[in-house]
From TrEMBL:
One of its GO terms (molecular function) is microtubule binding. Pfam families: Beta-prop_EML_2, WD40. One of its GO terms (biological process) is microtubule cytoskeleton organization. GO terms for cellular component: mitotic spindle. This is Echinoderm microtubule-associated protein-like CG42247. It comes from Araneus ventricosus. Residues 153-404 form the EML-like second beta-propeller domain. InterPro entries: Beta-prop_EML-like_2nd, WD40/YVTN_repeat-like_dom_sf, WD40_repeat_dom_sf, WD40_rpt, WD_repeat_EMAP.
Length: 414
């Protein structure tokens, strides 16, 4: 059964003077014979639905300063409207008498949904969360969301949670079902890392400083100066005793790590001249590979850390890379040959599998290693129309992917 709007102009009264050019933004049926319409100027118009597809205006009120973005009505005739960061309740049976107003501390109202028949629960979708409650009591966070595009993501060593950093400076730790904590430092951060012992999280700042956070609560417990340019990539060696920080200035800063990842001291600098994109440690802790951006191209470098010396990248084929995130390497050249025109933005290894995120919106899982001369076999899943910015294995059975402010959790089936 479909209800239709009036199809003839005689059923629509001429808008009051000064209110022409309004655009309908939302609507809700009120009982069997009422229709509330919210527009771009902040007005709610209550219509009576008459026999023969006729409509008559009952009342019009200025509900919000700007557009009425969404509305919902209870079976008792209470109309709830949302606009900007406020909710309002109206009695539709009393010619839109104003009943209540609730201001939201964070986020703008984007959607409303009433669930249940007797004293229905109200769900409010904002630009960064879904809230649950009622206007009579309060609204609580039901499902938190990501506020802005994600710069980086790291996974804890147990594979049960992950940490994100976004464009609004939020550093968040998540399980696959809820937000564990959120911290908003004063400085923009571009990358994050989880210490292998699981007690500390580090974030690389735009000011070249390393922020050290308590992994259980997100409290910033230390700030360490590393460089004069933004830190763009972080990677611990296997036991967490050394941290490599790739920088916008092209250098990789090698820092010793002690006290469960809370104390850092500069050891050496691997000097390069092009911005670092990703950094990986070899299993032996003696070698390090990095991807860097050179003009419009991506190149890979291999380093002997103790000697602060760059060596032939072809030597990486004989090394084991437990957390492979460099999108260009001799061990994964086969992914670039498998599909013509595919461009990969992110990758991550888990055992014998390599997950990749591509510009065409696909997540592809290859066998690892995936060298150029080998027969390439892969499985793929389309995430969406936009590029996959980040992909990480959470554990052997789960995968995390991101584009913009969206985070996807995937189950991996054998």
């Amino acid at each position: 059964m479909f209800s239709r709007f009036p199809s003839h102009s005689k059923f629509i009264p001429t808008p009051p003077q000064g209110h022409s050019g309004r655009t309908i933004q939302s609507w809700a049926f009120v009982g069997e014979t009422g229709l509330a319409v919210g527009d771009s100027s902040g007005y709610i118009t209550l219509w009576a639905i008459l026999p023969g597809d006729a409509f008559r205006i009952i009342k019009e009120v200025r509900a919000h300063e700007k557009e009425v973005s969404c509305m919902a009505a209870t079976s008792e005739g209470t109309l709830i409207s949302g606009g900007q960061n406020e909710l309002k309740a109206w009695d539709a049976h009393q010619r839109l008498q104003h009943l209540a107003t609730m201001d939201l501390a964070d986020g703008e109202v984007r959607a409303l949904q009433l669930q249940g028949t007797s004293g229905p629960a109200l769900y409010v979708g904002t630009n960064d969360a879904i809230l649950e409650g009622s206007l009579q009591t309060s609204l609580q966070s039901f499902i938190p969301g990501v506020e802005a595009g994600i710069y980086d993501l790291c996974v804890d060593v147990q594979g049960q949670s992950f940490v994100t950093v976004d464009r609004h400076r939020n550093i968040c730790r998540w399980s696959t079902r809820h937000l564990m904590w959120k911290t908003k430092p004063r400085v923009d951060c571009y990358c994050v890392g989880f210490h292998p012992e699981g007690r500390a999280v580090v974030a690389g700042g735009a000011n070249g400083k390393l922020l050290v956070l308590h992994a259980d609560g997100g409290l910033v417990v230390a700030t360490v100066f590393v460089a004069d340019a933004a830190l763009k990539a972080l990677a611990y060696n296997t036991d967490g005793s050394v941290l490599a920080a790739g920088c916008e200035d092209g250098n990789i800063y090698i820092c010793g790590s002690k006290n469960h990842g809370y104390l850092y001291k500069m050891h050496t600098v691997l000097k390069n001249e092009w911005p670092i994109l990703q950094v990986d440690w070899a299993d032996d802790g003696e070698s390090l590979q990095s991807c860097y951006r050179k003009a419009d191209f991506c190149e890979v470098a291999l380093w002997k850390v103790a000697e602060s010396k760059r060596v032939s990248s072809a030597l990486s084929k004989s090394m084991d890379w437990p957390q492979h995130t460099c999108i260009l390497s001799h061990n994964i050249l086969g992914i670039w040959k498998a599909l013509e025109g595919a461009f990969y933005l992110s990758c991550h290894r888990n055992g014998s599998k390599l997950a990749t995120g591509a510009q065409d919106g696909h997540i592809r899982i290859f066998s690892y290693p995936c060298r150029e001369a080998e027969q390439v076999v892969y499985e793929e899943q389309k995430q969406g129309p936009r590029q996959v910015d980040i992909v990480r294995f959470l554990n052997a059975g789960s995968l995390i992917s991101c584009f913009g402010p969206a985070v996807y959790v995937w189950n991996i089936k054998e």
